[in-house]
Amino acid sequence: MTKPRIHLLHQAIAPRPNRRPHFGTFALVALALFATQASAAESRSRPNIVLILADDIGYGDLGCYGATKVRTPNLDRLAREGSRFTDAHATASVCTPTRFALLTGRYAWRQPGTGIAPGDATLLIKPGTVTLASSLKSAGYSTGPVGKWHLGLGETTPDFNADLKPGPLELGFDYAFFIPATGDRTPCVFVENHRVVGLDPADPITVSYDKRIGTDPTGLERPDLLKIKADASHSQTIVNGISRIGYMTGGKKARWVDEDIADTLTQRAVAFLDRQQSGKPFFLFLPTHDIHEPMVPHPRFRGTSECGWRGDVIHQLDWTVGQVLAALDRRGLAQDTLVIFTSDNGGAIKTTYDDGTNALHALQSPNGVLRGTKGQLYEGGHRVPFISRWPGHIPAGRTSDALLGLIDLLPSFATLTAQKLPPGAAPDAVDVLPALLGAPGAQGRDTLVLQSNRQSPLALRAGPWKLIERQNGPHELYDLATDPTESVNLAARAPARVQALAQRLAAERAKSTP
Ligand code: CA
Q1: Cα 497–409–265 angle (5° rounding)?
Q2: 95 counts as catalytic
Q3: What is the whole-number distance in angstroms between the Cα of residue 349 and the centre of ligand 1?
Q4: Which end of the chain is more exposed for a tag (fewer CB within 10 A), N or C?
């Protein structure tokens, strides 16, 4: 794009015989100046992108969002150097549907089977779908996810001893290093591109979510082997002294050590940054394991917060962010990189695992003043921290109340990188780039549909209003402008508004999307 523009300009201002001699000098200076500006413009139009998607971090979990019992200096720095959003939403209040919507720009509730995926799920996104990664790859980006995938693998039940595909690489990523599902689900191994890392062929992996397999002890059978207690749903195969959801056998050498997961993912993310070639933009998607359960901080973070291991893994997460920012600084890339930090759903204080510090977790509300938690349709389920930094392009130290969803990043990044999406791509997403960049008056999107783990009931946000569907009772209505804590249900007082919003939600449901 840049070169032809320079060429045209050169033609337009090139010295002609009838012009005074000094104009040629002027033209060369102007040309050089323009070339420099054009190069800067190209850099501006295709910044590197680092998207850090934390897991289960709530609206009140970071210092820059009001937390006082944990310290998040690196995230606070990011907020100081960039903009902090107060009305950003994860689209769903649990992992898998948020990730589906984030990558495809399509509401997950439109596709059955996109609820929380087991560790042996098949790939939930059809190869060929335009994704956040494929769009950026089309724009010339080097693309890589490092972290937690949780969107299934393969066309049939995955064989963890063979090539695991289709997966991230078939959806537009050039490189992938990831946890297949979650930290609390089998298989407890990392995958790099198509293969389990460190797998000994003589010790093949088998995974089951239906029945007990193999001879590995379970949490129910051998609670004496556990380093943290677990409830019945998390009491199947024991790996690294922690019982999981699901069974697995084999893969002993490939199994992760929970205390080292953050270090491993951080090291891989920084390595991805370090091997990028200058001149080619990159997209690093870093969906962290932290702070999903089991919350098992590395020993160096234990006891560093005031609210138990849950706070300690927030410190660990902040450290990861710091390492990524330091890597950008070290390579002189901070000015040319858009960094976004957000979360896949709201926070929760869970008791599925008991590390002995659970009582301390309650010293700080994960979602601040918001009502509800992960898994719910109240704000605490889906309103998440959202910080964006791009020096010189995103106002520093600004707070924005623009409404946006993680689902909107696909078309926003497409606009940012001058990509025209094909018809039907990202059907539920809105280009919120002006709001993201802090353009005066940019207010993001008007409406947003929110879900929990299921396809129904849903919630609809429209301006300040929020309708929460209830299947076994009347719907709820809140005015978030005056009642951000969803304390006063206005449904009985405003039946016409409830009806109007319900009709809008029904219209959204009825839309036909690819
Ligand atoms: Ca999550």
Answers
A1: 125
A2: yes
A3: 13
A4: N
Q: Domain check: are 236 and 116 in the same one?
A: yes
Helix and strand counts by DSSP (H, E) for the chain? 12, 21
pLDDT tens-digit readout, 421-448 = 999 999 999 999 999 999 999 999 999 9
Q: Which residue has the tokens 């429209």?
A: 462
Per run of 10 residues, the mean pLDDT along the chain (length 514 residues) is 29 30 40 40 74 98 98 98 98 98 98 96 98 97 96 98 98 98 98 98 98 97 97 98 98 98 98 93 98 98 97 98 98 97 96 94 97 98 98 97 98 96 97 96 96 97 97 95 98 98 97 80
* Domain total in the chain: 3
Contact 248, 239 (CB under 8 A): yes
- Given 64, 95, 188, 307, the catalytic residue: 95
Instruction: Look at residue 189 and give its three-state secondary structure.
Output: strand
Annotated catalytic residue, options 89, 150, 315, 475: 150
Residues 162, 251: Cα–Cα separation, whole Å: 13
Beta bridge pairs of residue 303: none
Q: Say how many Å lie between the CA of residue 17 and the centre of ligand 1.
A: 69
Judgement on whether residues 214 and 356 belong to the same structural domain of the protein: yes
Distance 42 CA to ligand 1 centre (A): 36
- Computed from CA positions of residues 486, 291, 113, 449, in that sequence, does the dihedral angle turn out positive or negative? positive
CATH code for the domain of 222 = 3.40.720.10
Rounded to the nearest angstrom, the distance between the alpha carbon of 53 and the centre of ligand 1 is: 9
Place of tokens 């549909």: 449
Residue type, 166: P
188 noted as active-site residue: no
**Distance from residue 400's CA to the centre of ligand 1 (Å):** 24
Is 8 in the same domain as 111? no
With H, G, I as helix, E, B as strand and everything else as coil, classify residue 273.
helix
Angle at 88 between CA 363 and CA 142, to 5 degrees: 110
